[in-house]
Each structure stands twice: as C-alpha cells, then as structure tokens.
Amino acid sequence: MFEDADDEDFEAIVASQEESQSSASASSSLSLVQKDKIERNRRKALALKLAREKIKDERTKEKDSGAGFFIPPEEDSNAKVHDSIEVEGRPAPFIGDGMPECIDCEDNFSESYLFTTFGHYVCDGCKENDHNRLITKTEAKKIFLLKDCDLDRREPPLKFIIKKNPHNPRWGEMKLYLRYQVESRAIDVWGSEEALEEEIAKMEGRKNIMKKRKFDKKIKELRMKVRGSLFTRKIDEGIHTHTFGEEVYDED
Fold first, then answer.
1. What architecture (CATH level 2) is domain 133-191?
2. I want to staple 99 with a disulfide (CB 3.0 to 4.6 A). Which of 28, 108, 122, 242 is the partner?
3. Which tops the pLDDT comparison, 23 or 147?
4. Alpha helices in the chain (DSSP H)
5. What region holds the XPA C-terminal domain (predicted)?
6. Which residue from 136, 166, 170 is spatially nearest to 151, judged by alpha carbons?
7. Rounded to two decimals, what is the model's pTM?
C-alpha cells in the first residue's frame, strides 16, 4: 500500500532521472559510475510503477468489508477437488460362457473377491483355503525369506490391500498380501521350490543353534549361581562358635 510519501519518492526519482538524462545529453561522455546510477534509478522507478499497478488491479477484485479491511475473492476449490476424484465402479459379474474357472474346485464363478482384488482365479467358496488366505507383509518376509523390494519393486509388483491393525489402531495400517502370490514370488526369487525349502531349513537350523547357545548360556549362569551359594554355605558352616556354660564364682 503506497502513501503520499511514496508518491513524492517516485516523483523525485523520475525528476532525478530526467536531470541525469539531460545532463547526459549535455555532456559528450559519462563515467561508468554515473551510468550505473542512472540505470539503478530507472529500474527502481519502473518497479514502483509496476507495484502500484498490481495493487490497484488487486483492489478492484477485492470486496470492501466496511470494517477497515478488504475481503479477497473466494476461489472455488471444491470444483478442483471433485474434478481430480476418479470414480471406479465394481466390475460387472461374468455371464454365460465367459465365466472364469476356479483353479481349486474347477467350477465356474461369476463373481469373486480374490479375483476382483488380486486377479486370482479362485471362487469365494475356496478363498478360505490356507494357501488363499491373506498374510501381512511381516509374515510374508519372515516365512518366505523375502525383502521389501521383492514384494513391491520386483516386476510385476504384488497387489495388496490396506487395513487397520486389529490389535491397536494407533500402530498404523497393515499391508495384506495373498499367500498364494507371495509363495509364487518366493519361488521366482530363490529359483525353485526345493531351493526355497533348503534355505528355510538352513534358517531354521541357524535359529536352533542360536536357541541352543542361549539355553547353554542360561544353564551356565544358573550353575555359577548354585556354586556360589554352596561356597557361601560352606564358609558359614566352617566358622566355630564356642558355647559357654553358667558362670561359677571361685573363692580361691
């Protein structure tokens, strides 16, 4: 917002610029310092003029509230939000000869949750089978020895659904994968089912070794405690304590 003082400064700058230009025409040549000063004054005057025009243009769009301030124009932000929302409907059920076949029971089905969500050819009657159940990302990595990149970055990325943690909603959301697809991905990563089972066996063997080491360590600590208590007991038993009888006065 510019006041009268700004107008005076603007007029002074323009006047000084005109004087500089007239003096420049009077003299045949100017020094570099004078030319630089003239250019700075010209740019400053132009910036003030553009700023004044911009504020004037904004004031024409604003609404005077009558309380000492202007109300900015309201933007229709809701329209942008609605335009960016894509509505994806549920796919229509299969009808007639085009119905897919379940890979478990070999029956045709028109609708399936696993087929719609994961693209897995299994009907709703067979989705409760163990290999068709959903597992968390932690279980997928622990059971099948996979990494995050094997699930989410390796082509094609595995599909998943997001649900809230049933144990505690504050723990964050869970990613649920289809066990059948995770197992297939593990076979692709390790080369074959036999190689996967061998690696799992090695992992279990290493876990058993670690468990045995922890068990032996606890047994050793327990033995040391028992030996220490026995040694303390022997010391206590080895101390002689003399028992005196009743005192008798001897006149001699």
1. Alpha-Beta Complex (3.90)
2. 108
3. 147
4. 4-26, 32-61, 77-84, 113-118, 137-144, 148-152, 179-190, 193-238
5. 133-182
6. 136
7. 0.47
